[in-house]
Structures are given as structure tokens and as C-alpha cells.
Amino acid sequence: MGKKNAETSSGRPKRGRGARGRGSSSRTNSKATSDKRLERTSQDWRPDSAIDDVGAEQDNGLEHEDDDQVHIDVPVAMWDFDHCDPRRCSGKKLARLGLIKELRVGTRFRGVVVSPKGIQVVSPADREIVLQGGLAVVECSWARLDDVPFNKIASPHERLLPYLIATNPVNYGKPWRLNCVEALAAAFYIIGFGDYAEKLLSGFGWGEAFFKVNKPFIDKYRKCHSAAEVSAAQEKIIEDLESSWQQSRKEKEDAGDDLLFENPNHQRRLGEQGESDSESEVDEVGDEIESLSGVLSITNLHPQHQ
Ligand SMILES: C[S@@+](CC[C@H](N)C(=O)[O-])C[C@H]1O[C@@H](n2cnc3c(N)ncnc32)[C@H](O)[C@@H]1O
């Protein structure tokens, strides 16, 4: 088993590790080490056994290895349509860190592809597909999805991600609208490869916030056994967020408060924040992000609703 690392037992990726922890996604130690790690993550993240609800308040449920020691032993890949500024794009940054492989258009990918064109949501049931074939994303602009030849990158295992909140600087606070590194990390977390998720996020200054904000949701999804269960968990999360928003609105109304205050969700609706896909590094994550998951309601950004 990996050593328990005090810094990472909080479930947060460590800052600035990516630059030091460079390594190819295909880089492996010995096969024995690799098998041991997969066996370990497999045991630690089995939905039934992974979550200790009490401990989960403090921990993401994994025993961690230092990010520098973690090597991602499944293929991680992207089709890159060059829509974004190369210096600011999370997919390209992963490539510079040696953590993702670029696929040519027309190349088939045997693993799970997280894509806005997916129908089924990703779930722990996808574990074997990822172990055998890996995980891929489509690096493109959200504003230019129509320019992407999705028919040429079709995969038998395309997946949507369930409700999760972006914490990247471009689409910060928007549900479902994750960038590539967040999308890969989200799928790894849900499927049961938390160390891999942290390894990817550790190269980004704001990466720590992603798990912090989404932990309550990820904890629910990773307990599920099937896509249907993840979809049901998502529906419940959405309902709860809506009723909590309505409730707080009602309380303010009853107290005679000015209801003209801005709904943070409405500020972030599609199109109101610009549709740049530029990534920029932020070193500090403000207090706002801490409360983000508590205040957000639902916006109409679901990939299927565009
Ligand atoms: C549209 S691109 C934008 C990338 C951004 N320019 C960056 O720097 O990373 C994000 C990709 O992540 C994946 N993704 C993000 N959110 C998703 C979701 N809710 N469901 C499925 N895939 C998603 C898809 O592969 C999508 O094409």
C-alpha cells in the first residue's frame, strides 16, 4: 500500500508538483510496481469499501502516494483541435508536462472518451474499460463545438460527466463546463483512480480547488455502481441545490431582504462571461471558491442542453 502522506491525506493535490513530477503517461516503473498500484487503487476505490462517511469529511478516501511517485499507468489522450491559445490551454499544458498523448483525428481510442456528445454518464462501472484502454478528452473550444468532426473521433465508450463545478479560471463556477484537465480528473475520481486525478491536477495552481469544491458530489458518484445510479445521484444533487436556493430566497423574502441581489448562478450563465477558452494560472484560490458548492444552483449549461 502507498504511504499515507500527511499533505495529501486532506484529499488535496499539492501545489506545484506537476513541474517537478514530469513523466509520461506511458512511463512505468516495473510491471510489478504497476500491477501493485492498480491492485491498490482497485481495492481502495471499490465503491462499497472506499467511502468512510466520517473520514470523508477530512479525506478523499484514498491512501496517497506522493504525486511525484505516481505514474499514470493507463493511456491518457486527447484529440486537439487547436482552438485555444497554446500557452493557456489545459490540454496542451498536460502535453508539455508529458502527462497526455495527442491522438490524430481518425484514430480510434479504445478507452473511455469524456465528451459533450456522450449520452451515458461516466461511472465506476467504466473502471475495466479505463484499465484496458485509458481515458481521453476532446481539446477544443466550448464556443466551437460545431466545428469539431465528432463523427471522426467517435468511440464506443463516450461519456458525459455528471454535475460537477468548474474551478478553472475561465469557466469558474459553471457546472458541467469543465476544461480538459478537470474532465480527466473528474472521470478518474469517479472511476476510482484518485491518485491519477491528483497527479493531473497538481500541475495547475488552481487544481486544488477542483476536488475541494466537488468533493460532496464526487463522494456520491463514486459510491454508485452503474451509470443509472450516477444519473440518479446527479438528479438528486440538482434537486437539493434547487431547493436550497429556493429556501434561502424564501428566508430572505420573509426577512424583508432586498431580493434584487444577484443570483451567483445567473451571473455565470452561458454567454455572460465570455466564451474564451483561455487558461490562466491563478496561484491563490479566494474565499469565494470555498463556498461555491454551497451556493450554486443549476444553470442551463448541461452539454446535452446546448
Ligand atoms: C470543450 S474542451 C475545453 C478545453 C479548454 N480549452 C482547456 O483548456 O482545457 C473540454 C473538454 O473536456 C471534456 N468535458 C468537459 N466537461 C465535460 C462534461 N460535462 N461532459 C463530458 N465531457 C466534458 C470534453 O472532452 C470537452 O471537449
TrEMBL record:
<feature type="binding site">
    <location>
        <position position="161"/>
    </location>
    <ligand>
        <name>S-adenosyl-L-methionine</name>
    </ligand>
</feature>
<dbReference type="InterPro" id="IPR007177">
    <property type="entry name" value="Tsr3_C"/>
</dbReference>
<feature type="domain" description="RNase L inhibitor RLI-like possible metal-binding">
    <location>
        <begin position="74"/>
        <end position="106"/>
    </location>
</feature>
<keyword id="KW-0808">Transferase</keyword>
<dbReference type="GO" id="GO:0030490">
    <property type="term" value="P:maturation of SSU-rRNA"/>
</dbReference>
<keyword id="KW-0690">Ribosome biogenesis</keyword>
<dbReference type="GO" id="GO:0005634">
    <property type="term" value="C:nucleus"/>
</dbReference>
<keyword id="KW-0963">Cytoplasm</keyword>
<dbReference type="InterPro" id="IPR007209">
    <property type="entry name" value="RNaseL-inhib-like_metal-bd_dom"/>
</dbReference>
<protein>
    <recommendedName>
        <fullName>18S rRNA aminocarboxypropyltransferase</fullName>
        <ecNumber>2.5.1.157</ecNumber>
    </recommendedName>
</protein>
<dbReference type="InterPro" id="IPR022968">
    <property type="entry name" value="Tsr3-like"/>
</dbReference>
<feature type="domain" description="16S/18S rRNA aminocarboxypropyltransferase Tsr3 C-terminal">
    <location>
        <begin position="112"/>
        <end position="237"/>
    </location>
</feature>
<keyword id="KW-0539">Nucleus</keyword>
<comment type="function">
    <text>Aminocarboxypropyltransferase that catalyzes the aminocarboxypropyl transfer on pseudouridine at position 1191 (Psi1191) in 18S rRNA. It constitutes the last step in biosynthesis of the hypermodified N1-methyl-N3-(3-amino-3-carboxypropyl) pseudouridine (m1acp3-Psi) conserved in eukaryotic 18S rRNA.</text>
</comment>
<feature type="compositionally biased region" description="Polar residues">
    <location>
        <begin position="294"/>
        <end position="306"/>
    </location>
</feature>
<keyword id="KW-0698">rRNA processing</keyword>
<feature type="compositionally biased region" description="Basic and acidic residues">
    <location>
        <begin position="33"/>
        <end position="49"/>
    </location>
</feature>
<feature type="binding site">
    <location>
        <position position="176"/>
    </location>
    <ligand>
        <name>S-adenosyl-L-methionine</name>
    </ligand>
</feature>
<feature type="region of interest" description="Disordered">
    <location>
        <begin position="244"/>
        <end position="306"/>
    </location>
</feature>
<comment type="similarity">
    <text>Belongs to the TDD superfamily. TSR3 family.</text>
</comment>
<dbReference type="GO" id="GO:1904047">
    <property type="term" value="F:S-adenosyl-L-methionine binding"/>
</dbReference>
<dbReference type="Pfam" id="PF04068">
    <property type="entry name" value="Fer4_RLI"/>
</dbReference>
<dbReference type="GO" id="GO:0000455">
    <property type="term" value="P:enzyme-directed rRNA pseudouridine synthesis"/>
</dbReference>
<feature type="region of interest" description="Disordered">
    <location>
        <begin position="1"/>
        <end position="67"/>
    </location>
</feature>
<feature type="binding site">
    <location>
        <position position="138"/>
    </location>
    <ligand>
        <name>S-adenosyl-L-methionine</name>
    </ligand>
</feature>
<dbReference type="Pfam" id="PF04034">
    <property type="entry name" value="Ribo_biogen_C"/>
</dbReference>
<dbReference type="GO" id="GO:0106388">
    <property type="term" value="F:rRNA small subunit aminocarboxypropyltransferase activity"/>
</dbReference>
<feature type="binding site">
    <location>
        <position position="90"/>
    </location>
    <ligand>
        <name>S-adenosyl-L-methionine</name>
    </ligand>
</feature>
<keyword id="KW-0949">S-adenosyl-L-methionine</keyword>
<feature type="compositionally biased region" description="Acidic residues">
    <location>
        <begin position="274"/>
        <end position="290"/>
    </location>
</feature>
<dbReference type="GO" id="GO:0005737">
    <property type="term" value="C:cytoplasm"/>
</dbReference>
